[in-house]
Amino acid sequence: MELVSLDRIHAARKLLAGVVRHTPLELSGVLERLHGTPVYLKCENLQRTGSFKLRGAYVRIHGLSEEQRAKGVVAASAGNHAQGVALAASLLGCQATVYMPTGAPLPKLAATRSYGAEVHLHGATVDEALHEAKLFAEKTGAEFIHPFDHTDVIAGQGTIGLEILEQLPEVRTILVGCGGGGLVGGVAAAVKAIKPDCRVIGVQAEQAATWPPSLAHGSPLKLPEMHTIADGIAVGIPGEVTFAHVSELVDDILTVSEESLSRALLMCLERQKLVVEPAGAAAMAAVLDHPGRFPGPVAVVLSGGNVDPLLLLHVIQHGLNAAGRYLSLRVRVPDKPGSLGALLTRIGALGANVLDVEHTRVSGALALGEVVVALNLETRGAEHCQQVVTTLRQVGYTVSRQL
User: What is the pTM of this model?
Assistant: First the structure.
């Protein structure tokens, strides 16, 4: 299969001028201190529609003939590709129909409709929505716009690689979150053509990691199931076109845990002042997991920022827990006046902040004359958590930690 050429990516760059934003590349002081080398963040979360997807969608739809555009376009997505297709179609004067999983985040659903697309909810996964979108294309003649497996899409996403090389010519490692492979394949196609010694590394959620087994097998393999907060990169099987690019051009694929994704999102919020969705934070999660591993300067692509506020609340809590900033305990205390007050006073003296308390006498494990107190505490880190638990046990409390 012929890979996307540098000339095609440059042509996509010209086409996208005035359509997409030239997103900033920001130095991260906290990651630089962690790695001992400069680490920069490519902020595609600040792109129009909130992710990189507009780039590939616009190039793909622009490449259609007037007759094809008159019949409309159809796509399937958990949200980011949906918004990219919806806006691109609106800018190019054609009707977009988008299929989204029934559990798609409401903000992404509302945004897609606001760009003028007709949205249908179908199936529990993106793969099921994809199947329905293809059936719609067969019935109506609308052009199916694949979220990643097309050379025009890869060329559009590759323009991010050109921007990084212009903003940071000395870059030695680029980390990119990957689902279907359109983004990492496009970035690699651009970067390897200009600077072949620069390493391009893809990052997947380990609970939706189709690339490692597919690459080991030598062809795309379908995952039997996926469970991850990173819905934007939860793709069940790579495409044939993206597989050719990733297998040929990408230096490595790493996986990150749900805890690492949560921690990365939390760091983006707290330290970088950036709203990033879990899928968009995958590359940063790899940087946090492997301090000092990547030759610098390092560029980290933050691919999207379209996060459901309810999911954001959950992820923040998960990230606080993973970072040792949040501690849940169950403590047995005597069932007598003053016991709860004494426990809370002890916890306050240890410097932990009590977020909420539940006091109950109903438990089969309790001895007569005991109650259990469930506590959620704000703490200063893993060492502080251990100090709180150890001290409470030393003074006689029966303590169990809750995950």
Answer: 0.84
